[in-house]
Amino acid sequence: MSDASDKALHGRAFEAVVWGMSAVNFRLMYDAGISAGMTGSNQIVWWPGLMDHRNQTLTPNPDVIYLMPFYDTSDGPVVLEIPPAHGGTINGTVMNYWQAPIEDVGPAGLDAGSGAKYLILPPGYADPVPENYIPLASDTYQGYALLRSIPADQNPASIETAVAYAQQIAFYPYTPGGETGKTLWVSALEQEFNSAIRWDTSFFTTLNTMVQAEPFLERDRVMIDQLATLGIVRGTPFAPDEATKTVLDTAIRDAKEWLNEGYEAYFDAPYWPDTGWAIPTVPTLTTNSTAGFALRGSYPVDARGVSFTFEFFYPRHLGKGQAYLVAITDTARTALDGAQNYRLTVPADAPVSQYWSLTAYNRDTHTLLPTDILSRSSLNPDLVTNPDGTVDIYCGPEAPKDGPAANWIPTVAGSGFEVMLRLYGPQQAFTDKTWALPDIQRL
Fold this sequence. Notes:
It is built from 8 helices and 20 strands. By secondary structure, the chain is an alpha+beta fold. A 6-stranded mixed beta sheet has the order 6-5-9-3-1-11. Helix 1 packs across helix 4. The mean pLDDT is 95.
């Protein structure tokens, strides 16, 4: 291989990582579902209880009941039934293979809490849709929904209620007669579910699986020759030689470094001035995701690549049902260190209609830390509130000496960490920024 060919291969592999990140991210979750017991698509992988650190998805929410219905419309439409918001709440989004949102469901979605039968349609579907269904047109055959059943609090009885409410969801292939099919449930509770990004040559093997599974979308046809350079060709086995593997390995390491720089750039534009808190997205990605990446003159592949290195799922209406803020540094703009102790004072009257939570993640992998306590939330019955209504949350390898252990999130010495604040049902004081978080203070 000549030096020029070597450089071309590296460049194309680098760009393939950035372009394919969201689809590989999806496929890794699908594969983890298979490892958990799923036998194919049109089944729901779920956690019938609060997850623990064995869930190694990217920045998951450990305070809710998670459900992942994986669909495949190759044989026809698929029905997703969301129950009315009586006795429970479902927040969620249906997405295509690329995790571009098709529509939100539940109180913040199209059914507005009334419940509905959603009909997920395959590409090019032209048959009439019965009036009692809400059609969701997907431009890929496969995809999934991320659904969350929100408990009233974290008492065992409330968790059981949220689990029971989640089981009212139904998911099955559509029949012309409209019969209710059988929902197939696969529990991933108390077992490994690892969909963290693999920063090695196996990434390209997963990327090849995606190319074999789905036809190229029109906007992505430019990648056909690019991927062929790497040996990824539709209908052909992927079998790179050792020289190619060496270049691929270098390219993905370089891509990881570059994508991480993009992640850190979020914090150059903090949500509240002079703080380290940022909303981890950019307007062009939000706009294009909402439009299914169909806007002419704009295709934020770089922003999409960065986003799906640290998260999965993208809502169609970001900020309506939930809002997210991330911090990776303390008051001195020093990276959060798992061996140090910190305090975050959450101001009184958090602007939420449902709840807020703070979760710590591994800074390098963006996955849950291997600890027994993963987050602290306004749902926690034993959370200690200060007399003025503020709440002090502590992060560190040991329980705080001068604060309540019930407000402590353990960290792990030897690795950096990051924290995410979730606001479910964000209200006006958040959007107009009259309520603001201070920075995390190192103790």
